[in-house]
């Protein structure tokens, strides 16, 4: 997702910023930019696509800021589009008249601020929320002629999440900074007076030793003469290993990605979840014209997200929805009719089977949407419309944050479709929107929960297999739990609809058959309870995951009490991901790169 770098010092600022941005590439982005300030000259460069596009522009066009004996300030940014398309105009740094800003996060009240500033003569050129920050700063500076005061007044007016670096010709030796919501670190360089800024450790490693990780609400101003912080700060020592830094201190990318789900879903909802409605700028209102059915096609984890969505589309949009595994769909000679909206789901956008299924649907004249994490991937180029997940790059082969963001996006789509079809009552919509806002909390990994999964994992390293069982949307979640376990522990696991056990699989039940039972309070609790009791009566070892105590369980993972089954869904997802990861660790497997698997399956 978006990344920030900044530098004050006498070295080659442009190269330091470009190299810093390269270190943030692993987070994913669609455009990038830097601004350089030397004396009263500012130069800005922006480019869409890879950092090397920006680098070429900078090398060919820099005219100022080439004198390394003179202090040069610089700020840089990688942007993952949220408000407005990935264009140069929307890329950061954003300009007022004499100041530039880079920003990570979202300014929730940007529309009101933009209106106010427009009335007082400020001219906006981008579609972003960020641009209001620099105009607000100049609005105050034009009144007070005091940059410190103007910056303080500016940040007091902002609502939302905002980590900011701002430079201005009115104080050409300073960088103003603020952290609220998104991460921001400041490090002292190895040379005298040098200061580095970055939104994560990777760009700082090797250049600095001492770092401050700003807490929410901290702001200040930095110059070659020192840093003034709004609050007292604690300096710490930077790690020295880049890969470790990219993993944010976690043991595995998978672990990091599990932990960051609570943040990336916020990005997935950004600009789409409004006060009283859902908006998808990527879709036109006539998207459902002539449509009587949705068909979803995907593979693996993405298929499980699709299966989850099929319950939500039928329940909330009141539209028939079928889901197919792409590799099966391709060869079954499917009947395709133009009253079907075809949705493919894919983290990579390159999975061969899903891509071919999409092409078949296109050739059959169906409208299509790609729900995808990678912009400009093959599927996004073929589909009529694309809805990006905004999960950032997923490195662990075992997909985690792609699944949670897919589920959130598809859930929002079901609400959007329900609204435009006029089948979703206002009160129902309000409850769903409120629940969406609570998802980050359900995805937060509590230390206690992680520790519980770690401790329990030692009891589940043997046996002849696992049944993951659930009902309704907890059935696809059970499938996903079983897939996670299979992929990284190499133990045999199957997901089943809980009510299906008595039709055959229960014959396998014995103490060495482990049942992982998903028992949400708010969806068919009594039904699933009976199914688990049947398994317990046949001596299966039961690990129950539920907010309600269940006396027949051999092991019990207590989830939080909430008021909506989807909040239970996301917390149980975290449990399943942690549980399989900890089993894999105990078995000594390679968590991020399990045997026989590839991250992107581009062959059929
Ligand atoms: O990139 P995609 O979402 O299209 O990939 C589909 C599957 O290959 C993928 O979800 C796979 O099942 C994961 N390794 C699951 O963790």
Low-confidence stretches: none
Helical segment tally?
18
Number of strands: 24
Major β-sheet strand ordering: 3-2-4-1-10-9-11-14
Helical proportion? Answer: 25-40%
CATH homologous superfamily annotation of the largest domain:
Aminohydrolase, N-terminal nucleophile (Ntn) domain
CATH T-level topology of the largest domain:
Glutamine Phosphoribosylpyrophosphate, subunit 1, domain 1
| CATH architectural label of the largest domain | 4-Layer Sandwich
Look at the structure and give the CATH class of the largest domain.
Alpha Beta
Count of individual domains: 3
Bound molecules: 5-amino-5-deoxy-1-O-phosphono-D-mannitol
Strand content: 15-25%
User: Taking all residues together, what is the mean pLDDT?
Assistant: 92
Shape: globular
Secondary structural class: alpha/beta
Report the major sheet: 8 strands, antiparallel
Distance between the termini: 30 Å
* Alpha carbon gyration radius: 26 Å
Describe this structure in words.
It is a single chain. This protein has 18 helices and 24 strands. The protein folds into three domains: 244 residues, Aminohydrolase, N-terminal nucleophile (Ntn) domain (Glutamine Phosphoribosylpyrophosphate, subunit 1, domain 1); 187 residues, Glucose-6-phosphate isomerase like protein, domain 1 (Rossmann fold), CATH 3.40.50.10490; 142 residues, 3-Layer(aba) Sandwich (Rossmann fold). The mean pLDDT is 92. The radius of gyration is 26 Å and the shape is globular. The chain is α/β, with parallel strands linked by helices and 604 residues long. The strands form four sheets. The chain has an eight-stranded antiparallel beta sheet with strand order 3-2-4-1-10-9-11-14, covered by helices on one side. It binds 5-amino-5-deoxy-1-O-phosphono-D-mannitol (M6R). 5-amino-5-deoxy-1-O-phosphono-D-mannitol binds next to helix 9 and helix 16.
